[in-house]
Amino acid sequence: ILTPPRGEDILIEIKSTQSISESHLSKIKMIKKDYPKCRALCISQEKHARTLDGVEIFPWKQALVELGLLD
Description:
alpha/beta
């Protein structure tokens, strides 16, 4: 769980795969049930950002920009 100085808490899971499926997201979805107000992010090697079952999936470089860690 990432807690930025301003903004909402973010659940982050990192996967090395190039293709995230629903089964890859089981753990982050389970944690999200305990923290329903948190934003859920999966960082992977996918080519394009998308949302699957309430979890935002980002290519790793785009995720760093989204999190404000890279310009």
